[in-house]
Specification:
Elements: H1 2-18, H2 25-34, H3 37-63, E1 69-79, H4 87-100, E2 124-128, E3 141-145, E4 178-183, E5 191-194, E6 206-210, H5 228-237, H6 310-322, E7 343-349, E8 353-355, E9 359-360, E10 363-368, E11 374-383, E12 389-397, E13 402-406, E14 410-411, E15 415-424, E16 438-445, E17 449-450, E18 453-455, E19 468-470, E20 479-482, E21 490-494, E22 504-509, E23 513-514, E24 520-529, E25 544-550, E26 558-564, H7 565-568, E27 587-592, H8 594-597, E28 603-610, E29 616-626, H9 630-635, E30 637-640, E31 647-652, E32 659-666, E33 671-675, E34 685-689, E35 696-704, E36 708-715
Parallel strand pairs: 1-2, 1-3, 1-4, 4-6, 8-16, 17-23
Antiparallel strand pairs: 5-6, 7-10, 9-14, 10-13, 11-12, 11-15, 15-16, 18-29, 19-22, 20-21, 21-29, 22-28, 24-27, 24-29, 25-26, 25-28, 30-31, 31-34, 32-33, 32-35, 35-36
Helix pairs in contact: 3-6
Domain Peptidase M43 pregnancy-associated plasma-A: 169-320
GO molecular function: metal ion binding; metallopeptidase activity
Organism: Chitinophaga solisilvae
Length: 717
């Protein structure tokens, strides 16, 4: 394993050291907007606003220099060996940003004289965050260990690296901190930005950087070794486009230059690789001085990147001051002085979301944010507008450490609830910061349903009452599709065609179901599905539909059904447009849940695992009970039909652990057939065939370890 890791590390290092610059920002944004017309319009509107805004910013700059701002930065190092990116490497990158964004970089002399007057100073500085969002001391550097060899792709702005739940690291408040994730990026990309104001979830805003292109020391490579990848991606974060406008070499313009929306960058056909000599001409700037290949927003090597222009500075300042102004007033760069007594409740569990049992037990996380050890505190709490209860905690909690506290249990009836808990009198003294004392949670307890249970998604509410959706990546998930269904007017749908991230899991979970001691439980549902790829493609990562049974409120689940590719689809051919099933493109599937339910309360999970193929629909869900023959329950085993005309079933109520064999004899005592316990099928049934035997009397003999049982059987035609 260690040798494999070294090989992977070497390959990635070489790619970064010797390859060409490749930024994923535009591609990720195109992926997000391809199937979302509303997002496309938002991007166009934002671009128009930025063009107008930078003009106003330029007018303001002529009147007075913009305010000097220091922006707090938190660096999330997310790798299998996060120590490969040292603190010194992080600090070197902050130093680069401080020089590049204030035009104090040592290589500024490399800017040709014709463009020296255009060199812009953003008057932006950067610091490693000195305090957490909760007001505790910080270094601004976080390290998260991933699975060996784990890398993250740039799809949708690389969301997986940005959440603890998907192996990454949760952002600090993006309104007050600039978040930078440093990791292994797949696909030879060096970075990707998720700028504010263009549709990314707020908690995903920031930039992701390939670790070998971050900073100027440590694990940095040879070509992208001056920290300019982060400078480039932060240019995107603050609203800049690539200098050539990502228009595939086109020079089409209307009224004014519109390739990157900036007036003082020369027209440019396409990106620049390497480190060309000056002047460099192209199809858009065919005469001296040519293109501005040394601009931070081109693809040149780090050693040839030297400037932002005044026009680019105007746009970046407009984004900061109008789209993310809260960064300007953040206290993240201010060191913390801890008070003596400061207790905080930072989390609550056991009373969040859907509860599958009416007995709730809140568990709060108590953190000592004071300088002195915390030895006593009162935790007060209440549900809705009920009476306030007090729990007196005693212990010894060191400064900046935490512990969980389990509060007394209580029972609730069906309904929706708010729980509020807060601290009082840490160490018997006033709390220095009462703003962090309180925490709340919202939970619901739904009616437990019985069988038969049906759901056709006909009502407008979705998920239906008592159902829950789990959407870990906060992207595409299950939704109600109006006007599409199997002999109905609606169904549940997941749009895998537009879901451009592989292996993402989305669950649609039923209410809690009480089988009421049913002997057997069966699930029936209609499904319609298609694929984008040729169904005959070998080893293709297909969309997968699973059905699981959970008996612990979705904490775990046991697999009951799994189909993908040709086994799942109802449209036989590849379909590159969005699949909408016709009336004959539905299939009725059934699943025996009996063994997994085991007569206990349960939920059924419909799980989609996306691999960007095409849509999956489900409809007309029906879960029913099937009880056994009362005679079988009483006798434990039945032989039927009796009399028979050929086929004989030996059916057990429960498969006996001490059964050795089952034999069939004729009236003369001759052995006709014998079978071991392994011949008992999943339905607790063993089959014998008397079709070719004469009419008459037969005997079924069951041999157990310490006993035997014989049942008389008649065959007639």
């Amino acid at each position: 394993m260690r040798q494999t890791f070294i090989i992977l590390l070497t390959l990635l290092y070489c790619l970064s050291a010797a390859g060409q610059r490749k930024c994923g920002t535009t591609e990720a944004l195109q992926q997000r907007s391809r199937n979302n017309p509303a997002l496309q319009e938002l991007i166009r509107t934002t671009e128009r606003t930025l063009v107008q805004g930078q003009q106003r910013q330029r007018m303001a700059r002529t009147e007075a220099a913009p305010q000097v701002i220091t922006i707090p930065v938190v660096v999330h190092i997310v790798m299998d060996e996060p120590g490969l990116v040292t603190d010194a490497q992080v600090r070197s990158q902050i130093d680069v940003l401080n020089r590049d964004f204030t035009a104090t970089n040592k290589d500024i002399s490399g800017i040709p004289a014709v463009w020296q007057p255009l060199t812009g100073n953003t008057r932006l500085n950067f610091c490693l965050a000195q305090r957490t969002p909760g007001g505790e001391p910080a270094t601004g550097i976080l390290r998260t260990t991933t699975a060996a060899g784990r890398s993250f792709d740039i799809s949708n702005g690389s969301p997986d690296v940005k959440y603890n739940s998907t192996g990454g690291s949760n952002a600090w408040d993006t309104r007050k901190y600039l978040n930078i994730w440093v990791t292994r990026i797949s696909g030879d990309f060096l970075g990707v930005a998720a700028p504010p104001g263009i549709g990314y979830p707020t908690e995903q805003e920031g930039v992701v950087i390939q670790y070998t292109a971050f900073g100027t020391t440590g694990s940095v490579g040879r070509t992208f070794n001056l920290g300019r990848t982060t400078t480039h991606e932060l240019g995107h974060y603050f609203g800049l486009r690539h200098i050539w406008g990502d228009d595939s070499g086109s020079c089409t313009r209307t009224n004014n230059k519109d390739d990157d929306g900036i007036d003082d960058t020369p027209p440019q056909g396409d990106n620049t690789f390497g480190c060309p000599g000056f002047p460099k001409l192209d199809n858009c700037s065919a005469t001296y001085p040519g293109i501005m290949f040394m601009n931070y927003m081109d693809y040149s090597d780090d050693v040839c990147m030297h400037l932002f222009t005044n026009g680019q500075v105007d746009r970046m300042r407009f984004v900061l001051e109008n789209i993310r102004p809260s960064l300007m007033t953040s206290d993240g760069c201010q060191p913390v002085s801890l008070p003596g007594e400061d207790a905080s409740l930072t989390a609550i569990s056991g009373t969040n979301g859907k509860q599958c049992d009416n007995r709730i037990t809140p568990v709060v996380t108590l953190r000592n944010k004071g300088r002195n050890p915390l030895t006593s505190i009162n935790i007060l709490y209440r549900i809705n507008n009920g009476n306030v209860a007090t729990y007196a905690w005693r212990g010894n909690l060191a400064s900046l450490t935490e512990t969980t506290v389990t509060l007394p249990s209580s029972t609730v009836s069906i309904g929706v609830y708010n729980l509020k808990a807060y601290t009082n009198l840490p160490n018997g003294l006033p709390d220095a910061n009462t703003a962090n004392d309180t925490i709340t949670s919202r939970f619901n307890f739904d009616d437990i349903v019985t069988l038969p249970f049906e759901q056709g998604f006909e009502d407008d509410s979705f998920p239906p009452p008592g159902w829950v959706i789990y959407n870990p990546d906060r992207s595409f998930t299950w939704e109600r599709e109006r006007a599409v269904g199997r002999n109905s007017r609606a169904s549940a749908l997941i749009r895998n065609l537009g879901y451009n991230v592989n292996n993402q899991t989305d669950d649609l979970v039923t209410p809690v179901i009480d089988p009421q001691q049913a002997d057997s439980v069966f699930l029936f549902f209609d499904v319609a599905a298609a694929v984008y790829s040729d169904p005959g493609t070998p080893n293709n990562p297909w969309d997968t539909l699973q059905v699981l049974v959970t008996k612990d409120c979705h904490q775990t689940g046991k697999l009951a059904y799994r189909k993908w590719g040709r086994r799942l689809i109802t449209h036989p051919d590849a379909l590159t447009t969005e699949f909408v099933p016709t009336a004959n493109e539905w299939r009725r599937d059934s699943v025996d849940l009996t063994a997994l339910v085991s007569k206990e309360k349960f939920q059924v999970t419909f799980r989609n695992i996306s691999n960007s193929e095409n849509n999956i629909y489900i409809d007309n869900i029906r879960i029913v009970r099937k009880d056994v023959n009362p005679a079988l329950r009483e006798a434990g085993v039945l032989v039927n039909p009796n009399p028979t005309d050929g086929i004989v079933w030996v059916t057990f109520f429960e498969v006996p652990a001490d059964l050795l064999q089952v034999s069939l004899y004729n009236a003369n005592g001759q052995l006709i057939a014998t079978k071991p316990p392994g011949a008992i099928a999943a339905n607790n049934r063993m089959t014998f065939n008397l079709v070719n035997e004469p009419n008459g009397v037969y005997f079924v003999k069951l041999i157990y370890r310490n006993r035997a049982k014989t049942i008389k059987l008649m065959k007639v035609r």
